[in-house]
């Protein structure tokens, strides 16, 4: 009896084994599917990572040199250039197959954007490049306009008066020096004001000197955003509120008037330099005397 039961159990195990093998034969795992994705979509994360698109992922025999188009294709197109020094892959579609290469600094005609990707129009047709590797190249006219706008903005914030109140005790030009008693070019304008009067920056810029200068005493120099340099001399010891490299804004207080250096009394000696040479502050638009 036990022998009959054992034979039936072995027969059942054999039948189950055969069924399992038949199921495998009927439903094979093909190389065309992977988790419900087709093989083109199931490429490695490294190949689809735009961080790696500056690396050549196609063989030299398959890589096609992309020849950028020379003329705009629509009103919204613009000229850019490749920023990656090792070049960048061009793809058939966003995240699609790599079809060619663009080299560093190649000019490209961008016709539109598609998410993080730019559609590039070339003599070879259309391709897509990740926006990470393309920057816009301004035309000469656009660069000129930007420079003019920056200069106007910097100039419009320059002006006013370096001190409040007081009077002009000595203008710009040749004069008999009050201490040396010789005829000499007075490189700036003197404002006679009470000691301790705040001296004010004439516009936004960066401090390039803050300390002692022979003849001028305690002095502050500012290189302004418009390219001019202003000098404020004969300041009070211990009154300087700025240091070299510090950014200042228009009419910011930087120190106080005194008579340090070669000075006969409390006053601010104020100079303006252009291209390394002193000019008459009165000739500058926006300066109030």
* Quaternary form: single chain
Specify the structural class: alpha+beta
Alpha-carbon Rg, integer? 38 Å
CATH structural fold name of the largest domain: Glucose Permease (Domain IIA)
Net shape = elongated
Helix content range: 10-25%
Region (Disordered): 42-62
Keywords: Signal
Protein name: M23ase beta-sheet core domain-containing protein
Pfam family, one: Peptidase_M23
Describe this structure in words.
The structure is a single chain. A hairpin with a 3-residue loop joins strand 16 (205-213) and strand 17. This protein has two helices and 22 strands. The chain has 289 residues and is of the alpha+beta class. The strands form six sheets. Strands 11, 14, 16, 17, 18, 19, 21 and 22 form an eight-stranded antiparallel β-sheet that branches. Strands 9-8-7-4-10 form a five-stranded antiparallel β-sheet, with no helix packed on it. Strands 3-6-5 form a three-stranded mixed β-sheet, with no helix packed on it. It has two domains: 44-136, Roll (SH3 type barrels); 167-283, Glucose Permease (Domain IIA) (Distorted Sandwich), CATH 2.70.70. The longest helix has 25 residues, at 2-26. It has helices at residues 2-26, 140-156, and strands at residues 33-34, 37-38, 64-65, 78-82, 88-91, 98-102, 107-114, 117-122, 125-130, 134-136, 167-170, 173-176, 183-186, 189-192, 198-200, 205-213, 217-224, 229-235, 247-248, 253-256, 268-274, 277-279.
